[in-house]
Each structure stands twice: as structure tokens, then as C-alpha cells.
Amino acid sequence: PDPATANEHARTALGGGAGDLRLRYSPFDSQEQGLRLTSSQDLKTLLDEIDVHTTGLHLGRGVAAPVLYGVLREYLADEDVDSEDLRGSIAYDPVAAFAAGQVVDSDRAFSLAHDLADDADVFPHIRSAGVDGRVYHDAGASAVQELACTLGALTERLARGTAQGVTLSTLLDDLHVVVSVSTPYFVEIAKLRALRLLVPQVVDAFADETNTKMDFAPANLRIHAETSRRTETIYDPYVNMLRATTEAMAAVLGGCDTLTVRPYDAALRPPDDFGLRIARNVQLILEHEAHFDQVADPAAGAYYIESVTDTLAQRAWAQFQDLEAEGGIVEALRNGTLQEQIAETRQDRRNAIDKREHVLVGTTHYPALDERRRDDLTRPDAASTNGSTNGEPASSLASLSIDAIRGALRDESTLQAVTSALRSESADIEPLPRIRVAEEIESIRLRTEAHAETHDGPPQVLLAPLGPPAARSGRATFARNFLGVAGFAIEEPLKFESVKAAADAAIEQTADIVVLCSSNAEHATLAPSLAASL
């Protein structure tokens, strides 16, 4: 949205129970909603009548996060706000930016991370050492792979930071981890719990290496959880509310410190007021009605959760060690081995969907047959969503520093032009993709809708229930789900008394497909007779 609209949304959210604001600016990602910002003046409009002293500000993801930080610095200079009063985070992870293909090499990615670390004293309550596990989740990684990659990114962050002279304690004071939470309820609870167990092990190794005395307990880790984009569907989108609710519960039970619930319609269009309100209320119900905030560790002692946590931790640590043996996560990305491993997991999940073993309610199973979504896909492209491409960044931006970003903005370069200067022309790795697991199935139904626009509607299917009630009912249910997934129009009579009655109905309705629904024994005799009658 534009700054004025975003300001209205923000004030409504804060008035409706939200505690913090997460600012998304995604100038190059047409799959992600973002703010339409061009200058620091737009940020002033966005934050009008919002008390930044009491409202946490969490800045973006990817290479857009440092740009938003530069804008924030300019805004604070103009507004004469004491930076020590601000709290929040900067979700910039140089490894994630490199993995997503946003930065040409890891050295460029880490130069901004080091610059943010140097600014730690300016904003003592804003955590700038981000480790973002969402990029692996969005690419289709398993829970074990997500944990291993997150540990790998953390290791790279600590290694490069300490090599640059930043103390381990400073890095850990600024550390925050961002994770996506998916629908396998107990696995996702265990994933967050395993993360808290594993990160201190990495920290202990660095403490020993740097001769630093510290006790980094699991409770010291700051985790921000976000409900999964990967599991969202465009068909039957109200089911996304239910998915988000279970994901939010898993995140809280897993021990997240802060939480973002994505609106149910985020995959379909820019979220409307209803979608934003429901997303907010999911969290409020968990806090004020379920009282999840009053229990320190509600999952503690549950045998199954503890068992899954232990299994995930062991497997993730083994995969993390494999990454380290390869030279670290950056080398694994350069070699392409990490992309191959995640692609294999992604394909296994797609195969399970194709075999109807992985259920997506409303998409692969139990579809709403009359639903049409092609006209609702109104998401604007990235350029029109996030502002003008006009303007060139100042030449000083070549230094890749926050000061250079601020200088370019003062020279009236647009945010998108500045971000373009940080972003690679072409990555030297195969970037990790961002997927939704329902996309391929949805594409079939969207093609059906496109076909219907140039023909007399979608293909017409007549179910022909014949024979014993138990047999015909089961076959009819399967056929309705199987063909309904493709968006076909399905006519389902209760039963036909004879093959002739079924054939007459098919001819009268000009059905394109007739599905015989009966028992295995009856099919052998009924199918040839029905085919001959059509």
C-alpha cells in the first residue's frame, strides 16, 4: 500500500491489539506484498501519529532491510527522535540474501551486515544480527533442513563477525532468528524447541574458540515466528485462517518470542481489512482467551513433543555438520549441493501431493466446486506495488555502507534505485526459489477457468451412481474430489436405476465426461453397457 494507506492500517492494527509493526518493502518480489515507499518523507507519512517510543519497529527482509534502516536513520534525524528509545529488529541475514540471489557474492552481503553491527551502539534496543530461516522454508526445505541451514547461517554470521573484530557478546546481544511455521503441528512445535537447544551449542563452540566466558542459555535466544506462506492456497482461502491458527499455536507452544500471522488472503491479493483483522485476532485469542502467555513452557514434559524435538535436533545437527564439512553453508550454496538437497525434498512433497498422500484441504481434497479465482488474482507487479524505478543512486553507494545509503537518499535517489545498487545483476549461484505447495494443482484449475472463458463453461462431468449404495457412494466421493480439483463442473445424482437412465441423463446434459460409480464386480458388466449407450 501507499504510505497514507499503510498508516491507516498501522494505526488500526495498533488500536486493535497489535504490539509492534513489521515494515515490508519488497521492490523485486512480485510474490510478496510490500510498502510503496520512495523516500524518507514517505516513512514520515507512514509513521504519522504513531508513537515510535512505545511501538517496536521491525524492518523488512533481504537487501531491502538495510535500505529501510537507512530511511529510518534519515527519518530520525529529521524528527529529532532519540534512537536509544527505539526497539525492534532488522531482518537482514547476509546468507539468506545470498541464497535468494539478491547479492552477487557473500562478501558484498556481509559488508552491510558488518556496517549494521557497527551501528549497534546507535540503536541499543534494535537487534541487527538477523538469521532468517524463511528463505529455506519458502524453497521447500524440511524441518530438519531448515534447522541445519539456520545453524549454518548463524555459524557464518558469528565467524565473519568475530573475524571483523566484533565481539561475540555484541553479536549475541543483537541476534534474532526468524522462522516460518508450517502445518505439521507437533513437528513445528518441536522445530522451535530444537532450535533453542541447538543454537547454544553453536555459541559454546565459538566461545571456546574465542576464549570468551559466557553462558548463552536457550532462553536467551530471540525467535520471531511467522505463519507459513508455503502452505497458503488461493482456492478456498478461508481454510488459510485455520492453517494460520494451527501454525500460530505451534509457534507459541514452541516458544517463539514474537509472532506474525499472515492474512488468509495474502496469497490471493493485497490483504483486505477483514483479512488483517482476523490475522490479528488469532494472536489475541491465543493470548487473552487461551492464556498461552501465562505459561512459561506449556509443551514441557510432553513425551511425544520431547521425542520429536530430540529426533529433529539430532538429525539437524548431523546435517549441519555435513554443511560445515563442505566448507560452510556459503560453499554449499556455491557448489549447488544445498539447492539439490532442498529440491529433492520439494519434489518428494510434490510427489506426495500428486499421489493424494499430502492433503491440502480445499485444493487437493474437498474442493469448493463452484469457486472461481482467476479474476481475483489482482496482485500488482513488483514495480507498481513498491514505487517508481526513476532516479539513480549516488555514486558513493559503491561503498556499500549505511552512510552511503543515507547519502543516496539525501541526493533524492528513490528507495528502489538504492536497493538496485545493492542487489546483484545476476547471482553466481542458483537462487533458492519461493514456492507454495499448492501452485501446481492450482495451475490446473486456473487453466480450466481460462478454458471456460473461451468455451461454454468448464468441462461437464456426470457421476453415474449404479449398484450397491456403499460402493457407489465411495466411488462418487473419490470422483467428485479428484475431478473437482481441476475445476470441472460436476453433476452428482443420488443414483440411477439403470444404465439406460444414466446414459439418457448424460446425453441430455451434454456431459463431456461420465464417471461410472459402482463396485469392482459391477464395473465389469456395467461399463461396457454404459459406453455402448452413449
What's the topology here?
Layout: H1 3-15, E1 20-23, H2 40-46, E2 56-59, H3 64-79, E3 88-90, H4 94-99, H5 106-118, E4 126-127, E5 129-132, H6 134-138, H7 143-163, H8 168-174, E6 175-181, H9 185-209, E7 223-227, H10 239-254, E8 258-260, H11 273-289, H12 303-325, H13 329-335, H14 337-354, H15 382-386, H16 402-410, H17 415-422, H18 439-454, E9 460-465, H19 469-484, E10 489-491, H20 499-508, E11 513-517, H21 520-533
Parallel strand pairs: 1-2, 2-3, 3-4, 5-6, 6-7, 7-8, 9-10, 9-11
Helix pairs in contact: 1-2, 2-3, 3-16, 7-9, 7-12, 9-10, 9-12, 10-11, 20-21
Structural summary, described in words:
The chain has 534 residues and is α/β, with parallel strands linked by helices. Among the domains are: 91-354, TIM Barrel (Alpha-Beta Barrel); 458-533, Rossmann fold (3-Layer(aba) Sandwich). 51% of the residues lie in helices and 9% in strands. It is built from 21 helices and eleven strands. It has helices at 3-15, 40-46, 64-79, 94-99, 106-118, 134-138, 143-163, 168-174, 185-209, 239-254, 273-289, 303-325, 329-335, 337-354, 382-386, 402-410, 415-422, 439-454, 469-484, 499-508, 520-533, and strands at 20-23, 56-59, 88-90, 126-127, 129-132, 175-181, 223-227, 258-260, 460-465, 489-491, 513-517. It has a four-stranded parallel β-sheet with strand order 1-2-3-4. Strands 5-6-7-8 form a four-stranded parallel β-sheet. A three-stranded parallel β-sheet has the order 10-9-11. Helix 3 links the parallel strand 2 and strand 3. Helix 1 runs parallel beside helix 2 (40-46), helix 2 (40-46) crosses helix 3 (64-79) and helix 20 (499-508) crosses helix 21 (520-533).
